[in-house]
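User: Small ask, check this?
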Amino acid sequence: MNYRFILQIVIILIMNIAISILFQKLIPDYYLARILTSVALSFAFAIIQQWEDRIHFYKYPRFWYTFFIFGILFCLVDLITFVF
């Protein structure tokens, strides 16, 4: 099992909580701040996962797949943390 990948996910989720607190102070709408945080972190995570070319990351489908999948995942985590 790839523990490095799991560790990256855990670190990103912790950063999601920390950065969303910062965004909540800057943006008065709570929900918009959480969604922007999730999108920004999924974008950063997709660039980190891109091994071929990090400067021209937008050319590769793997970047876009990772960006969309983790954007949805982080938004779902925000939804679950909001409900509970």
The helical segments are 3-26, 30-49, 61-83. The chain has one domain: 3-83. Residues 3-83 form one domain.
